[in-house]
């Protein structure tokens, strides 16, 4: 599939070793789930608003889903390490998006200018440059977080790369990105839960030994997570 071609982790004979490495670092690069307790000026509600805004910017540029998921991870990790004022939250959000874009896409100057326009020129180019330096330093330049999509594509092998399941699972991952309860969920687990839920809704049968092999999670490990993602979709629909 096109998705698989784009994902270098799926293109080598030693992909098992690559995923072993991904599993070893995914816990190291996840945010503290209680980080909002350390923030005195912002709340989870404001996180939802800024991520929803980032999603709109991401959609506007038609960037890869990897860029979106990495941007949210960078933002959460930054907020877990630095207390910020509410008027700087949008700047932090767009900075995380631009760093993720540089990492995942071929970013050019036009993108930065358009992002400035989207903030209604609330920030200058210099503000962005300073914010970028601050964020990269705070994160120790650790940008190699293995997002959920590599794990999702790997599990999808068990269904012979069924597009219907994968696309529905991707949607669930985007919904989960907005929900605070999944902020510290490691990507291998979250992608497996989203995939499990998609198969269940599409009535694709049970969770086979192949699914367990590729995801490294059993059905009993995923059931409550799948239920939580389903509830999150329902709540989002009522907003």
Automatic annotation (TrEMBL):
Molecular function terms from GO: cyclin-dependent protein serine/threonine kinase regulator activity
Gene Ontology process terms (BP): cell division; mitotic cell cycle phase transition
Alphabetical list of InterPro entries matching this protein: Cyclin, Cyclin-like_dom, Cyclin-like_sf, Cyclin_A/B-like, Cyclin_C-dom, Cyclin_N, Cyclins_cyclin-box
Domain Cyclin C-terminal: 146-238
Record PROSITE patterns: CYCLINS
Keywords, sorted A to Z: Cell cycle, Cell division, Cyclin
Domain Cyclin-like, chain residue ranges per copy: 52-137, 150-231
PANTHER family hit by this protein: CYCLINS
Family according to the record: Belongs to the cyclin family.
Listed name of the protein: Uncharacterized protein
Taxonomic source organism: Cochliobolus heterostrophus (strain C5 / ATCC 48332 / race O)
